[in-house]
Design brief:
Largest sheet: 5 strands, mixed
Radius of gyration: 26 Å
Shape: elongated
Strand order of the largest sheet: 6-5-7-13-8
Family: Belongs to the LysR transcriptional regulatory family.
Mean pLDDT: 89
Structural class: alpha/beta
Organism: Rhizobium beringeri
Order of helices and strands: HHHEEHEEEHEHEEEHEHEHEHEH
Keywords: Activator, DNA-binding, Transcription, Transcription regulation
Number of helices: 11
Helix content: 40-55%
Protein name: LysR family transcriptional regulator
Amino acid sequence: MVRQFLPLNGLRAFEASARHLSFTRAAIELCVTQAAVSQQVKSLEKRLGVALFQRLPRGLKITAEGEVLLPTLTNSFDQMAITLDRIEAGQVRELLFLGVVGTFAVGWLLPRLPDFQQQHPFIDVRISTNNNRVDMAAEGLDFAIRFGSGSWHGTEALRLFDAPLSPLCIPKLADRLRSPADLVDATLLRSYRADEWSTWFAAADVPPATQVNAGIVFDSSVAMMEAALQGLGIALAPPSMFSRHLSSGAIRQPFPTTISLGSYWLTRLQSRPSTAAMLAFSDWITSQMSSTSQ
């Protein structure tokens, strides 16, 4: 197919202006003058025979025709940027897209990631964190590391390890606790899983409380632990993911009782072919699990 001449300057000017809804801010991004951006967009509109913007006293309003054009351009420019990033000094770089539950990312993956990068310097890792809810297909992920039972439709799952939960709090609050029953009167921080504290109380042989003084509900153990660090309450979280806080003394685990409600899993879509970068990461994380368990 013979591709017609593409007015790249005009398309680029339009895409930046549409994202910012401003010729001035687009000009700053593109390192040209505001007049140049405006003229390039006008030339593109003349070529297409349609208006792409309504010029308002304060900014721009994209037209229906502009709305049709924008997603294609944004995706195309993003893909070009990604491809260019992969080429460095003649060496093609592999990309690895990971979706990682935030607790695992902060507590386990990030401290070990330099080792992976040292072993595979031409694999660029792109990490997006989540609260254990992820759409791998829609987000274009190679892997998702998440917490649960290991059963997710259409995926292959490799179990990494359990992450038992236990109460964690600042020393000032821990000093007030003599037995697990003392927690009944404390402010308890929890995740969206409502049965966590009742399950822990049962494991600690605490009779069912008539009322639990529940605090804020979080969708992330990372945010919940930040609240605990600020003294807002007692978190029920995996000590293994917050070992740095425990080692420094910023956080204490007042009681040894733990409960296990699931494991961390490395998951991939069954329909997604494995790339060289995916195989390298899978081998690396498997070896990390083996060395940790020894």
